[in-house]
Amino acid sequence: MNFSIRIYNKNDEKYIIDIFKSNCPKYFDINDLDSLHFFLNNYIDENFKVVTLNDYIVGCGGHYVKENEKLIGIAWVMFKRNSLGVKNFLSLSNIFFEHIMDNIQNEKKAFDIIINTTQLLEKTFNKFGFHTVHIIKNGFGKNLDHYVMRKKYSD
């Protein structure tokens, strides 16, 4: 598997939108497209990455720091649906998420990490040490409960 992880650039936006749409309606509500556009146009920095496979963008995600709240958030982690096969998807998504977690560790901030996700990915993030702290029924759209998950800071 010939993949790489690199910093997002503005030319990647159309591919990220395509990835988002490929995950609707199972993982995202199409009504969140405006939120994704807003994020891509206002909050992107070197901590938001894309995953390429054979020079084709298949995934993205990253983190941000809220100094005033002493929190680190994980944002818009997603892969193009049905583009990798199950085995490659599981391998590549784990490698990518570990990359994000390593980048967070390199921030050297004693902050908890927050991720907003759905019931569909709760068990996946449990494996990385995240615990559900709040659930909003249909918070991300019909049948997409909003799960706020937290990983406590540890040395």
Characterization of the model:
The structure is a single chain. The protein is built from 4 helices and 7 strands, in the order βααβββαβαββ. It is α+β, with helices and mostly antiparallel strands. It has a 7-stranded mixed β-sheet with strand order 1-2-3-4-5-7-6, with helices on both faces. α1 runs antiparallel to α2. The model has no long low-confidence stretch (mean pLDDT 94).
Keywords:
alpha+beta, 30% helix, seven-stranded mixed sheet
CATH fold-level name: Aminopeptidase
Helicity level: 25-40%
- How many β strands by DSSP? 7
Biggest β-sheet: strands ordered side by side in the sheet: 1-2-3-4-5-7-6
What's the order of the H and E elements? EHHEEEHEHEE
Q: What does the overall shape look like?
A: globular
CATH superfamily: Gcn5-related N-acetyltransferase (GNAT)
Computed over alpha carbons, the radius of gyration is: 15 Å
Question: By helix and strand content, what is the structural category?
Answer: alpha+beta
CATH level-1 class: Alpha Beta
Tally of structural domains = 1
Spatial gap, N to C terminus: 33 Å
The main β sheet shows up as: 7 strands, mixed
Assess the beta-strand content as a share of residues: 25-35%
